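Batch job 17 of 40 flagged for manual review because the log was empty.
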Amino acid sequence: MDPSLLSNKLEEEITDDIEDEINVKESVLVVDDNADIRQFIREQLEDSFQIYETNDGINGIKLAAN
């Protein structure tokens, strides 16, 4: 393989890895038994955060522990 092609391929992979790390969102766990409330909160935050949700506290504790 041509060394310049290899160099370009490595540069693209490194750039992609850096962009992926920059685009990692913080996580938010939404726990509420009301689906409408969870949906509202998710819609407000999903552009900026990775949203996890559940409808009860026990599952919320399990999700938070992971």
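Reviewer: the log was empty due to a logging misconfiguration, but the result itself is present. The chain has a mean pLDDT of 86. Unflagging and moving on to job 18.
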